[in-house]
């Protein structure tokens, strides 16, 4: 499912697009926000298909070798452990995955060189050789290999990123996040899992979907009040020289302080400082941390920050 950190990243990206566009329609940009989240969810399914296609390629290689005019002893007695991987078989039969892929018409059929490259690198890896050589045929061991394929092979394949970039501008930064989703998905499956086993939903629940919408809208609707706060607490800085993305990060953080009573301020502060590590310089991170800390203390003193709900014990 789409985590709140990814939601915050997507909102930040669309907020940037909103202020950079002549189109001032909040509705239009909100639609774009949910569209890019949906595209990320597409990638989740697309990557799950990739490991199935790698196994299919391995099986075709075995068939080709068996059909040789003069097959070797190894050709005639192939190690079929990988193509019989139980975790891959569970994914292959999963109705939710197949339905989604069919509806979206998603396939790797036009990228045989990528599949070949991934298979070649897989067979050269130590973890694959160890897997093929040991006698552990358990589902847990099969699942462990699939997890390694995603986290040790697919995650670091530059050719994959090139292919994805050609297909969608929305997938540039989403591979790592989606592989973390896939790792969670694999843990949910057992050898006894039926074809009806559910995959992860796009949003954890309705609350997360509403959080996405509200965070984007509140940051824009309360633009003036929040920017005034940023100006107030950065008086010793030339506001014109502050990176625009840094201002947007603070704008979102302040929106959460002020308008999301169920989210602890420590969570908000930590999340946006973490975001700044990816979207700002080290100097900017320190600046953002300092401004948000000062602004939060001031807002609490004025009674403008009110938090209530589960997980807020100790919130001051």
Please supply descriptive tags for the structure shown above.
68% helix; 316 residues; mainly alpha; elongated; N-utilizing Substance Protein B Homolog, Chain A
Structure at a glance:
The model has no long low-confidence stretch (mean pLDDT 93). The chain contains 15 helices and no strands. With 316 residues, the protein is an all-alpha fold.
What do you see in this structure?
This protein has helices spanning 4-20, 26-66, 73-76, 86-92, 95-104, 112-124, 126-133, 139-153, 158-167, 175-188, 206-221, 223-232, 244-259, 265-279, 282-301. The protein is an all-alpha fold and 316 residues long. The protein has 2 domains: 4-188, no CATH class; 222-301, NusB-like (N-utilizing Substance Protein B Homolog, Chain A). The two termini are 31 Å apart.
